[in-house]
Specification:
333 residues, alpha/beta, 5-stranded parallel beta sheet, 12 helices, disordered N terminus
């Protein structure tokens, strides 16, 4: 699931030993993996991070993050991934063979013990898609163990207290393959992937009228949803809708039901994962008294996308296409 706790903003937490050009990452992997391409420096969440060699044993956390690596053809540079088994089918994606070529290390929470046992030289995770001060699992802590890190751009801390997000969600999606292309010396493949993403999103026709859309992740007392910096914001926008919580300067966050009712969404998108499943969430929305007068509920305009569609991942462009088709059907029907 998306983030459940709020994080303390501080780009300094990514500083793993400052030099004149920023943080230095010296992975524990074999120095023989180096080449004329290295060292290479990228901007990760506002911090310049230098990688001295090509990572050889990367551990990723969660499905979207893992699939960014697989879509770049980097299964052979992975020691494995950590992911619950409730995040959707992985045997029908274009990079399904990549899953078979690496190792599912754990279905539980990622830990230092897991990455040490995997002999990781790089951890790709996010705040808190794996990284967490409460659990002591941070880029800084990993650096103390001689393990490098890369932070998912969707999850970058904004420097405004506990809020996350430093750029629009699709720019975050384009930024990470570009950075990973440099880190792993596969920039040509990264450029191809980014071009594919841009082309697919640009092909979606934009409507004359944008229906109001609410993203429902979970929560009964208060709903958990997407602000302007989580992937659903631009998935909804590029699909031709308007995210009713798009003025909330955070990524995944909790709001009040009264604000949902006031915005009167015409469509509700359910984030499907785990328990309760999408059908249980649909039943709740349709029987929750405060929502009885909301247009989406009254007209039964509820659309389901999977978790991996709605967090930063290579599946975001396809999610834009699918939601756009649904929005056109309900606004022209």
């Amino acid at each position: 699931m998306p983030v459940r706790t709020k994080a303390v903003a501080s780009a300094a937490l990514l500083t793993l030993g400052l030099t004149a050009c920023g943080a230095e990452i010296a992975p524990a992997g074999d120095a023989a993996t180096g080449s004329a391409h290295y060292p290479v420096t990228v901007d990760n969440c506002g911090t310049e991070v230098t990688y001295r060699t090509k990572p050889a044993r990367t551990v990723s956390n969660d499905v979207g993050i893992t699939e960014l690596l697989l879509a770049l053809g980097l299964a052979d540079r992975m020691a494995g991934y950590v992911m619950p088994d409730d995040k959707g089918q992985v045997d029908k994606v274009a990079w399904k063979d990549g899953y078979q070529r690496t190792t599912w290390l754990s279905k539980q929470q990622i830990t230092k013990e897991i990455v040490l046992e995997a002999r990781a030289d790089l951890v790709f995770a996010g705040w808190p898609y794996g990284f967490s001060e409460a659990d002591g699992f941070t880029p800084q802590a990993l650096a103390g163990l001689g393990i490098g890190s890369y932070v998912l751009t969707e999850s970058c801390r904004s420097g405004k207290g506990q809020e996350r997000g430093v750029m629009s969600p699709l720019e975050a999606l384009y930024t990470d393959p570009a950075n990973l292309g440099e880190i792993f010396d596969v920039r040509d493949r990264a450029d191809e992937l980014i071009a594919e993403f841009r082309t697919q999103v640009a092909a979606v026709p934009q409507p004359e009228r944008r229906p109001r859309v609410f993203l429902y992740d979970s929560g009964e007392d208060k709903p958990y949803t997407s602000g302007k910096f989580a992937a659903p914001e631009e998935i909804i926008t590029k699909a031709g809708g308007r995210n009713v919580m798009g003025d909330v300067a955070d990524s995944w966050t909790t709001v009040g039901w009264e604000s949902v009712v006031r915005c009167d969404p015409e469509v509700i998108v359910i984030n499907n994962y785990g328990s309760p499943d999408a059908e249980a969430k649909r039943k709740f929305l349709k029987t929750f008294p405060p929502l009885a007068g909301v247009s989406a509920v009254r007209n039964d305009r509820i659309f389901v996308l999977d978790y991996v569609d709605l967090v930063e991942s290579p599946r975001n462009p396809a999610a834009v296409t699918a939601l756009a088709a649904y929005l056109r059907s309900v606004t022209t029907g």
